[in-house]
Fold:
Amino acid sequence: MKARDRATASTLRATLAAIENAEAVDVAVVPAAGAIEASAVGIGAAEAARRELSEADVAAIVRAEIAEREHAAAVYEGSGHADKAAELRAAMAVLTSFLA
Structure:
């Protein structure tokens, strides 16, 4: 990222966002809103702990991101947009290097 490679930085940001989304609290776990007098009070009182992902979970998310880009590249290539497909394949190479 120090070399200002925008494509690599964008790929890594998108993948980090996917990992952060996977760590988000499940909506079914969050209690429903109730009466005001029963609500949490104080800074951070209503915060819920994020999920802890294992290394295998993170690797699965990265593999899913690679598969998503592979599918999109095939669609782009089929519709005559080889330049976009090449960009996605370069992003796949970046992500694959992190799995090695």
About this structure: The two ends are 19 Å apart (CA to CA). The longest helix spans residues 55-78. Residues 6-99 form one domain.
